Amino acid sequence: MTELLRVEHLRKSYATALPWGRKPPPALNDVSVVVERGKTLGLVGESGSGKSTLGRCILGLTRPDSGAVIFDGVEVQALSGRALAAFRRRVQPVFQDPFGSLDPRWPVGRSVRESLDCFGIGTPADRERRVLDLFDRVGLNPALAGRLPTHLSGGQRQRVGIAAALASEPELIIADEPVSALDMSVQAQILNLLMDLQQDLGVASIFITHDLGVVEHVSDNIAVMYRGSIVEMGETEAVMNHPQHDYTRTLLAAIPRPR
Ligand SMILES: Nc1ncnc2c1ncn2[C@@H]1O[C@H](COP(=O)(O)OP(=O)(O)OP(=O)(O)O)[C@@H](O)[C@H]1O
Ligand SMILES: [Mg+2]
């Protein structure tokens, strides 16, 4: 079986009140996607289309109103105790701003080691070495492990965020706008790193971005979201070259191309 994740008919509305008692449209409106083992699904759509909500529902951080998230054949909402802990090990987030997941008072190496400690990976003596291996894996000089997050560049900080995500040897990474805060040249380096990791470690990912030009390079498949729904989904090549939906065509037209 090559299927790793299946999302079925997910619906989510936030209980925010709009003026005059109006209800906001649902953040997710019957969303279904599949991610195969070792493959990357690019999830693209404009701001507010529901991408992060979908990512958070898959991670178990937001509870959907209805529908199911099925990881490796098991429904995630039904997990508790050890099974839930095992799921958390197998599915890891990478966020736009790793500041949120790194303790500002700790040297970044300690934050990565904390992930190993938290999942009880290796012996305490092993873990020091594994932190350095992870730094090496994401292309960071191990000497940087002793620095505070504020004393790293944005790109270095995102590499630390990726190292922390890799600590538990996950099978699926949910990367929510992981390069959006970075300069163009640094974006390209981080995208290359993510592609190398997919090749070398066989880790699957959902790559969330508002930029179709970014997902084109990293994704095997693309899902286009618009106002809480997936309006188009298919292999990257097909979506880029033969878009079926008007909204996808609008996104394509917005990609800056060298002339
Ligand atoms: N915690 C929340 N409470 C209330 N409404 C929310 C919450 N989180 C998201 N929303 C609303 O749900 C909709 C989808 O938001 P979501 O963050 O999933 O979009 P997104 O596609 O990730 O956007 P962006 O590209 O700006 O990150 C938006 O209308 C947003 O305002
Ligand atoms: Mg978002």
Automatic annotation (TrEMBL):
Principal subcellular localization: membrane
One GO CC term, this protein = plasma membrane
Keyword Ligase (UniProt)? no
Q: Keywords on this record?
A: ATP-binding, Nucleotide-binding, Transport
Xref: Gene3D superfamilies: P-loop containing nucleotide triphosphate hydrolases
Pfam families, A to Z: ABC_tran (PF00005), oligo_HPY (PF08352)
What topology in the membrane does the UniProt record assign? Answer: Peripheral membrane protein
Q: What GO terms describe the biological role, i.e. biological process, of this protein? A: peptide transport; transmembrane transport
Q: Does the keyword Repeat apply?
A: no
Q: Name the PANTHER family for this protein.
A: D,D-DIPEPTIDE TRANSPORT ATP-BINDING PROTEIN DDPF-RELATED (PTHR43776:SF7), TRANSPORT ATP-BINDING PROTEIN (PTHR43776)
What protein am I looking at? Answer: Peptide/nickel transport system ATP-binding protein
